[in-house]
Structures are given as C-alpha cells and as structure tokens.
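Continued from yesterday's entry.
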Amino acid sequence: MSVEIALRAARVRYGPLEALHGVDLPVPWGAVTVLTGRNGSGRTTALRAFAGVVPPSAGRVVWRGNDVTRLGAHERARRGLCFVPDRGAVYGTLTVTENLELSARGRDFTPALDAYPELRPLLTRRAGTLSGGEQRMLAVSRALLSGARVVLVDEPAQGMSPAVASRTYALLRALDAAVVLAEQRVPHGLRRGPGRPVLVHELRRGAVAFSGEAPETAARTAPG
C-alpha cells in the first residue's frame, strides 16, 4: 500500500510542554489507520498536526511525497483533507440542513441522510440543540460528503448508540480515502470483518509504543 500522508520525526509543543516526541506515522491509501491511547497520549495532537491545526516544532508532514508542513489548515482542506474534531465539529447556530449544505458544497447531501436517517426529522433544528450523538452523526456526515482524499476523525462514535456506532465505523471503512481515526482503543466494529485493513498505532506519552494490524491488538489485550 502506498503512503498517502505521513508525519516524519514530528514534534509538537504546547508552550513548554512537548506533546509529540519525534513521531513517525505513515498513513497508507486503502486502509483505515487508528491512533489509540489514553487522554494525553498524543493521538489528538497527531490528528491536528496532519490537519495543519497545530504546526510541528520539528519534523515534517509529507502528503503524496510533498512537504506540506508549512501549509495551513485551510489550504490542506482545499487540497482534499477533511478534519472532524471531537468538539466544535458542527455549526451550532445553523440548522442541520444548513450544516449539510455547507459540507456538500453545492452537491446533493442525500447520501448523508441515507447513512443517518435519524437526521431526517431534525433538518430544521439548529445543530446546537441536538443531543451529543445526533451532533456526532452530523459531524461525521462532513466526512461522508467531503469527497476528501484524507479523512481525519477524532472519536467518531462519541455519544452514539452501539448500533449507530457500528454503522458509523462501516461507513468510514468504506470511504474511498485514507482514513485516520483517533480512539482510546480499537473499536469492536473495526477489529475484524470484511473490508480494507485496519492498522493501529498505540501512542503513549507522545511516542508510538506499538504498531500493527487490528487483530494483533485484540491478541495483546485478550486475557491469558
């Protein structure tokens, strides 16, 4: 599998604190990459570095062989990168319809409603009045409608019921894109099953502690 985007020896600082310590993270095309770890492990920071939301203090971001370290988040979005953060991913004062129209950029947003029919009766509601799970469905719809080459989603199923979460992971796994998810652990919906391979990088204190495929993580965490 060819590498679509990667962090190369990336370091990220928040003031005096270094959140990533020279991390190498390749994201191949044709796979789902899951960054796991506890809060403070660096997984969200890695997504933000990919997206251009935070600049590396050292190292590089390489996209399709080109150094894009100095490109801002808006320029990366124009080139085909979609970032769905864990918070603030919807426009709370706009209706669900208006949020979907912005994500679709003039295209038909019906595919999002087919993916999440729960949103149909909510189209006239302001996004800020939705429940946490409903807002997350709307947020993930951004990724489904974006047509992006690189899709980054921080905790996509937060607040969702198990059934909707399982559907969400299937939808993300089916995207024709390089997909990167940040999770505390590998979701059950991605551990096995048909579809593209799922690659896992476990981060601890800003460094990569383990890399492998999803079934290997299941073996590591199984009682024995």
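--- second protein ---
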Amino acid sequence: MALINEIKKYYTNIPIWVTDCLAPFYYMIPQKKRYGTVFESQLKKLEEVESYSKDQVQNLINKQLILTIKDAYENVPYYKNLFDKKNISISSIKEIKDIQKIPFLTKENLIDNKEELLSRHVDKSKLQYITTSGSTGNPVGFYVDEDSTMKEWAYTLYLWKRVGYRPDSSRLLLRGKTFWAQKNKSKNWQYDALRRELSCNIFDLNNDNLEDYCKAIEKYKPEFIHGYMSATVILCKYIESRPNKLKHQFKAVLAVSENVLDNQREYVEKILNTRVFSFYGHSERLVIAGECEYSTEYHIEPLYGYAEIIDEDGNSINDGSVGELVTTGFCNKGMPMLRYRTGDLASWSNKDDCKCGRPHLRLAKVHGRWKQDVLINSDNAPVSLTAINMHSDVFDKVIRYQFLQEVKGEVVMKILANRDFTNEDYSVILKELDEKTKGKIKYRIDLVDNIPLKPNGKYSIIDQRLKVSQF
C-alpha cells in the first residue's frame, strides 16, 4: 500500500501546521516508498512503451483488447449473458476490428446492471466506489480496482512530464475541492508544504480575494497552475488589470476537467507567457490522452484503453469528422467496460506521424459533451462549442459568459462583464455570434451580476434546457 494513499484517508482533518512540519521528513522518503510499487511499475511500463514502433503498439493494443474481452466474457455475468444472447463467439474476437461485434455499453446499461458488471474473480470489498459529477444530468456510480488511484497518478505524472512537471513540483490549485484552512478557519487560501500546493477558493473570485491570491503566488512561487480553465481565465483577467501584473513566471498551466476553448488557451498563454497543457480522461477511467509537447493534439495511451469515434448512427468514424468517443478500458479488472459511450465529442487527427515520434493514436480535439455542449438552431441542427468559439478582443472585458437555451433557434447569452464593457462591445458580440451561426440562432445578451458554478466548482459554458436527443 502506497504511503500517500494512507495519508489521503485522513488528510483534510490534519491541521495545516502539522503537515507543514512533516513536509521535510516526507520528502526524505524515496519516491518508491511514497507512491508504492504499483506506481513505480506502471510508470516503468509507460516509459518502455514510448519507445515502441507503430507495429509494436498496434500489437500491444490488439493483445490487451482480446485479453480484456475474453476476461469479461469468462468472469462478468453481464457480458456472458450479452454475448450468448447476441450469439457472439468469443473465439471470433481475433483483432481490433472484431470489437464492432460487441454492442455499446451506455450509462443507462451501467446504472441498471451495476452488480452484474462486477467480475466474479474480484473481492467487491477491495474495490473503490466512484460516482461521476452528473454533468449529463444523471450521476453514474461504478467500481474500480483498489490500485486504480496510484495507476492514475502514474499516468498523470507521465503526461505532465511533457511540460516539465516532476513528482516534487509545486502547484497553484484552482479546483473545486475544499482544503483544511477553508474548512476549519474559513480562509480563502492556504499553502500546504507537504503537498507543495497553494490552494485557492474558486467559488468567490472577487477582486479582494484575487489580490490575496496574487500576493500568495508571489510569496510561494508555485511552478505550475493546476485547475479549471474557467478559474484560470478569471485569474488572468485580474492579473492583466493589476498595476504590477504578476511578479512570477509559471512553467505551464495544467488544465483539467473542463473543455479548453481556443480563445481561452490563447488568452491565458498571452497573459502568463507559458504553455497551457491539457489532457483528456474521465471518471470511468477507460481512456486517457495527453497533449503533445509539440502540438495540442492528444496522444491516446495504449496501455490504458482503446478508443473509437462513432457517428449518431453508431458507425465508426475514421476521418477527421466529429463524433462520440467510445472507450474500452484495460486497467480495471474489477468492473470491465467494453465499448462504453462516453457522451464526449472528439475527432481524429488527420496529420501524418507526430513530430515527437510517438506512434500512438491521436485525437485532434476533444470538443465537449454530445448532449450538453451544443446549441440547437432553427433548422433543428446541433451547433457545437467549437463552431461558436470566438476570438474577438472584446472578450478581454468579459469575466465569464454562459449560453442559456430553452427554445430551439433562440439563445440568451449571460455575460458577467467588467466596468469597461460598453454598448459597442455588446453589438460586436451579437454580430460575431450571428455570423458564426449564419443567422439560424436569434441571440439576446443579458448582463448579469453572477454566473454560479456547479457544486464541484466546474463551470458550464452552455446551460442547455432542451432535450437535445429530440432534434
């Protein structure tokens, strides 16, 4: 058992002064002891696969896929019944293309068959139970292996290494998690020497708090920002308006959990003069992909899981068209999931081999949610966030915005603006929106005092009230 796993169980109840005192001794412990053998073993495998040829990676995926499907059929009641009912012979699954014989696993299937999806060879009491945040309106619960956390951390550090992150690097945390000083002292920020984290409350990003955060950043000098892109953008807007800007240079922004829009990336990189680095993963832990150090395309990690992209009819997409990401995980033996429909939109890269030399499958983009991050125009057609992504300088005066749709072809854009926002800016935004969607959506702009975050601190750019599946 990794030492870090044991500490995490009780961490938020330990006074910050205690953890600060323990910090020097903690970092004297070798990394292998801190993170455990599961972490070390996984990291070693990842580094080994990075040097594989394209054929070797393809063979690895093929082997892992067949083993996962065979194990699911032999040990998971849901798949035994499904294969037998659909007359799918396990011996007919010989290569990657054969996976298309297997029906998709939906979130509804997962909810209705949770116990039947557990492997008979795994002790349920040793599994971790996880629930999603419910961004689709229906939270989903499932089980993962007990060593899942440290495997996930090995993958995360491996991906972050592309922009210079190391296990002992320090971070500014802009996420929705409650920290000790916030929980026990009602403070909006704290520096944790044991974790080397400067945590800030993102639920109250007013100017007074943002100034305190900037002063703390200048004092503790965290190397990386790790958090939600929406919170990072607000911090950058404050830094831009600050007389002395920010007397600190970050090495990179590690963007997580929210879709990164092009205009957000460009703005943050301009203000902070550093790289925004994003990676794709989800709570179900079936696929993980990290941006390349040479581009913003995502390399899918072959040891973690296999990915497909499908159209609305369930047919495979092999070009650069946008479709739904479908995933099959290799790491979770306790609850194998085959061809799971994630609800996320993505597109394949149509470029030749990557400059970095990795032969992995690559995603050009992750576009958002299939049923949430779209608007419906007057022709009943969905319009994605990518299509309405705007680059106008007028958004430098916008703190946060959100599209609200309750009627097809009509959208209210809520804008939380700064004091420099003018009627001219209002008109420019309306004109750009109209051009983006070819006059097929009628827009209204409402200036508001607040756009609330979700309970977990995440922010939705589209508040979609329509049942998109009907269109």
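The mean pLDDT is 87. The radius of gyration is 23 Å. Will compare against the first tomorrow.
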